[in-house]
Amino acid sequence: MHPLASFFLGWPPWLATAALAAVPLTEVRAAVPLGLEVFRLSPWAAVWWSFLGSLVPMPFVFWLFPPFLRLAERRLPPLHRFLDKHIRALEARHRSSYERWGTFTLFLFIALPIPGSGVWSASLLAILFDIKRPYAAAAIVAGVFAACLFVLGVTLGAVRIF
């Protein structure tokens, strides 16, 4: 059993799946397969709870990260320098895509579930590119749903092959 999944044993399966989806390193890439194979949820329940759990961080990032950065700038300069370096690198990597595709970039960024391309990062990009929150939220929600369906398809295909 996956070590991360073992942490959630004893939790209700729906809650374990949603919690895994809310964690930045796992998100739907791990929540859907573990929801299906470890927690024995139906495919649609695994997608549903992964989808909902993945969206939990979005409002927190939108509303709490900018004040956190300002606080770090004033009170914790080493932390601010570290965050600023990594945030600027993220912005630089995706600036040309945003200039070309606009808000649709957020959808694409999440819909292809590769490491580092989830709700946490997309919400941060929305802040960096100053995308209006309703547009950013719509793109993120649609991207999460697409990613859930993609991971479900890959998982079900892999389970049938093996």
What does this protein structure show overall?
The protein is mostly helical and 162 residues long. Helices cover 80% and strands 0% of the residues. The protein has helices at 3-7, 13-22, 27-37, 43-55, 57-75, 77-101, 104-111, 119-128, 133-161. It is globular.
List keywords for this structure.
single chain, 162 residues, mainly alpha, 9 helices
Mean pLDDT, as a whole number?
A: 89
What is the total number of structural domains?
Answer: 2
Give the terminus-to-terminus CA distance: 17 Å
Structural class: mainly alpha
Main sheet makeup: none
Q: What is the strand tally?
A: 0
Q: How much β-strand is present in the residues?
A: under 5%
Give the count of helical stretches. 9
Give the overall form. Answer: globular
Radius of gyration: 17 Å
Helix-strand string: HHHHHHHHH
Itemize the secondary structure elements and their pairings:
Blueprint: H1 3-7, H2 13-22, H3 27-37, H4 43-55, H5 57-75, H6 77-101, H7 104-111, H8 119-128, H9 133-161
Outline:
By secondary structure, the protein is mainly alpha-helical. It has helices at 3-7, 13-22, 27-37, 43-55, 57-75, 77-101, 104-111, 119-128, 133-161. The protein contains nine helices and no strands.
